Amino acid sequence: MFIKAKNTTEKILSINKFNILGSHNIENALASIAVSKIINLNNDVVSSGLQTFQGVEHRLEFVKRILNKDFYNDSKATNPEATVKAIEAFTGKKITLILGGKDKKTSLAEMTSAIKKYVSEVILFGEAKERFKQEIEGSNYKEVKIVNNLNEAVETSLRSKTEVVLFSPACSSFDMFKNYEERGERFKELVSKYQTN
Question: Which of 77, 151, 153, 168 would be a feasible disulfide site paired with 82, CB 3.0-4.6 Å?
Fold first, then answer.
């Protein structure tokens, strides 16, 4: 990551030292670098801060590695657009995607396209599951499983032959939980009860 100021270009941080996933988070980091120059922060301070920042809870938050799968909590993804960003953060990996919750009735076209391109398997639960199933399978994508609740979603994901289990619901939480934080905490509790490799 570089900043250009006063006709000079300065390197702030190598991308491989930035610990947060997703191109949208790189964009956020670049914005923070620009602000740091406005308020005259030292480049070393900015670089150190970016290297040590581990992200925000419920936003592509690494939870645990189980059976050679990395589990990520992205409960804050309450719309399909946010879920697309999360999916794209794992390009090149085999992904199990857990979706569902209270349906906002938003378009699923972009998300369905990303699923077809990047996702190995989808697990659906919650109020939105039937519409999501219809839309996703209507795009000629057949690797869809339906479960009754988040507990069953986690259990089902453990049997998948994928590298990443991404909980990025694309829905609000209000069908089963009081907010996305409670939903994310429940996901982490469910994952944490299983032993690591």
Answer: 77
